[in-house]
Design brief:
The protein is mainly β. The chain is about 5% helix and about 55% strand.
Length: about 725
């Protein structure tokens, strides 16, 4: 009996070993060095082993047929091999270093981030709007960054030698066609948007992604909050108006609204008439925004809407008129933006959306009436595929439609109307390639076709980044950028072609222990700029694309928000060398909006004993060109330099109640924005002039801000 049991036992053992397959091999890194401690196993089983000091492994498995062997190790990308287990012998496996999203290289040339999820951020989320002198306008705060020029009488973004029309604004990837409030000549405008609805800002001063077009110089990307953290209400009582905001959350859906009323009567009543402005009706606006969100397990839908109504009635000094010139404006702007993002199988993601806007202006200059209307739409679809941590692919298509209607009714009975419609389609493809944690490449291609000028353009884009140490990296960027001629030229000549710039950028960035240093050199080559031979574009102007120009310079940025207790500050400097021959320029010259030197210092200090945040900012710009008809030269004289020292004080009455005070141009610098000359010389043959100055040297602001929330501690400090 015992002999029979022994035979049965030996039979079972032999069958057990016969049913197993041996798996063996060696795991090395890309340099051929053995990797100790890598886990090797058959997917879906408990069969596996770890590599020894020689990188070798060996184990047996009962699995049969086609199986997948997996090799995993911290800091390396997982390895997969599928095949018949009978052939998993003496394997030679190479593991590659994993791409670390926190410490690896990133593509930063030409871009400033203000978002909590970006390791390349030079600004904290929304903290740029706490800048003294910005008075809650994040566009004004962006003007403290390098690459921008101070044009205080305008208020829009002038970037690296480009005029304001060369910068485009997007919300959640969709175009905003009228991002700034309507205003009068020499009265600075403001951005239309409230900062508290956005989670991050990306400001590209050049070399931007192939996803975006129709911008010769710069793009500004605003991303709305995906999921609010809590329900709350914000109440604002200000010396120039008031505001109300609220966020409501129910399940996976939420709604945030914000409304504000601005009336500058208290401020305007303090203006003196020798500043060149008399206010008949103070600047007044009412605006509102809303964001609805619905977030599911694999998708998110967002609907953004905004409206603004603005009106003003002023008289402005004009050297060519004996009396002040009356200017009346009424503007209405409505904007809708809807986006939907869905995460598909196999690491695919789809994002689609549409925006539409309607902007109308009714303008009266003395007794002449001008009515304008722009209706525009943008539809976009984008696909994204992550093949692995090293390679990502982006594909997209978009369509723009813009319709402009203009009417003029002169006091003398002369009337005219104009209408201009353009259909523009775009395709783009882009890849992010990470060779390792030190080397990355972005390749992109964009194609556009415009119906009004009947032209197709193709724009290559490339960015390269190399991380030379754990704290620093170098980046390079190159790209072609096209933009249709301005509407006021196309309405008279539709044979014009796209204007073009080519960007060359070299960037160095260092980030360590709360300190950030950036230095960026660039060169922009302008081609096909529109020219005409009259004072303004009109029906008898001779138009051409014979203009050209260049812009080159150096931008430097330093920030430290950690190493001095309770102090956060940044320093920006820009050097700009630019000339161009365009519009009605009679020769190549530096445009009147371009200053050679721009410098700013922004500081924010938290004083715990005072329960206060104190802000101080200083801006300097060297003199800007102006044309003096009394001399033979063209745009060869300079205004005196621009100086502005601003201060703000936010006092926490309680964790959720803030008393806020700010003053712009604290020292009352006598800034001059330029000069206006008479159309004809006086009896002595001299063209008289007057200085164009701000309506007031300083601006004072007082406000009370109250937040009501579940956590009893949230406040609006970051939005002030």
């Amino acid at each position: 009996m015992s002999k029979q049991l022994s035979i049965l036992f030996l039979f079972l053992v032999s069958q057990y070993h016969f049913g197993q397959t041996s798996i063996s091999g060696m795991v090395l890194d890309k340099k051929g060095n053995p990797i100790l401690g890598a886990n090797v196993y058959v997917e879906g089983t408990y069969d596996g082993a770890s590599t020894d000091e020689k990188g070798s492994f060996q184990f047996t498995t009962e699995a049969t047929g086609t199986q997948t062997i997996v090799v995993s190790m911290i800091t390396y990308e997982a390895y997969y091999q599928t095949g018949d287990v009978a052939y998993f012998k003496n394997l030679n496996i190479t593991l590659y270093e994993a791409i670390n999203s926190l410490t690896g290289v990133t593509l930063t040339a030409g871009t400033f981030e203000a978002g909590g999820n970006s390791k390349a951020s030079v600004l904290k989320p929304l903290d740029i709007v706490t800048t003294a002198g910005a008075t809650g306008d994040f566009v004004a705060a962006l003007q403290t960054l390098p690459g921008t020029s101070t044009v205080s009488e305008d208020g829009r973004l002038f970037v690296r030698g480009g005029d304001a029309g060369e910068t485009q604004v997007f919300i959640d990837g969709l175009r905003v066609f009228q991002p700034f409030s309507a205003t009068a000549n020499n009265i600075p405008t403001r951005g239309r948007f409230s900062p508290f609805l956005f989670k991050g800002i990306s400001f590209s001063t050049g070399g931007y992604s192939a996803e975006y077009g129709q911008a010769l110089s710069s793009i500004l990307l605003l991303n709305t909050v995906d999921v609010p953290d809590q329900e709350k209400s914000d109440i604002s009582i200000m010396s120039v108006g008031g505001g109300l905001g609220h966020t409501e959350i129910w399940g996976d859906e939420s709604l945030s609204i914000n409304t504000s009323y601005i009336n500058l009567a208290p401020y305007e009543s303090l203006l003196s008439s020798d500043q060149g402005v008399r206010w008949i009706k103070p600047f007044e606006s009412i605006s509102g925004e809303a964001v609805f969100r619905s977030k599911k397990e694999k998708s998110i839908f967002k609907l953004y809407s905004g409206f603004t109504h603005t009106n003003l009635d002023i008289e402005q000094e004009d050297i060519n008129f004996e009396d002040f010139v009356r200017f009346r404006l009424r503007n209405n702007n409505i904007y809708f933006n809807a986006t939907y993002k869905h995460f598909l199988a196999n690491n695919w993601a789809m994002q689609t959306g549409a925006s539409i806007s309607n902007d109308t202006n009714s303008i009266t200059i003395i007794e002449d009436v001008i009515d304008t209307k722009e209706t525009a739409a943008h539809v976009k679809m984008k696909l994204q595929k992550s093949f692995n941590s090293r390679f990502k692919l982006y594909l997209g298509a978009e369509y723009f439609r813009t319709a402009n209607n203009d009417g003029f009714n002169g006091a003398d009975g002369f009337t005219t109307e104009g209408r201009l419609i353009d259909h523009l389609g775009g395709l783009f493809a882009e890849t992010d390639i990470f060779f390792n944690n030190q080397l990355a490449l972005k390749l992109g291609l964009r194609a556009e076709h415009s119906s009004i000028i009947e032209e197709t353009t193709v724009s290559p884009r490339i960015s390269f980044a190399y991380k030379n140490s754990p704290e620093s990296q170098f980046s390079l960027a190159y790209g072609d950028f096209y933009q249709n001629p301005a509407v006021n030229s196309l309405r008279f000549d539709s044979t014009l072609v796209s204007e073009k710039t080519t960007h060359y950028i070299m960037n160095y960035q260092y980030i360590k222990d709360g300190k950030t240093f950036r230095a960026e050199a660039y060169y922009k080559d302008y081609r096909n700029l529109v020219r005409f031979d009259t004072a303004l574009p009109q029906f008898n102007s001779n138009f051409s694309n014979s203009g050209d120009g260049y812009a080159s310079g150096l931008d430097v940025f330093w920030r430290d928000n950690k190493n001095i207790k309770n102090l956060d500050y940044w320093i920006s400097y820009s050097y700009l060398d630019t000339e161009r021959e365009y519009l009605n320029f009679r020769e190549r010259a530096t445009p009147s909006f371009a200053a050679t030197h721009n410098f700013s210092v922004v500081s924010k200090l938290w004083v715990n004993k005072l329960r206060s945040q104190l802000g101080l900012s200083y801006s300097f710009a060297s003199g800007r060109p102006f044309d003096n008809p009394n001399t033979a030269g063209f745009l060869d004289e300079r205004t005196r330099s621009f100086n502005n020292l601003s201060f703000n004080w936010a006092y926490l009455i309680s964790p959720q109640r803030i008393l806020y005070f700010s003053v712009n141009n604290l020292l009352g610098f006598n800034n001059v924005n330029g000069f206006q000359y008479t159309d004809s010389p006086n009896a002595n043959g001299v063209f008289d002039r007057r200085a164009i100055r701000p309506p007031a040297d300083s601006f004072f602001f007082v406000g009370f801000f109250w937040t009501i929330s579940d956590d009893k501690k949230s406040n609006q400090l970051d939005n002030l």
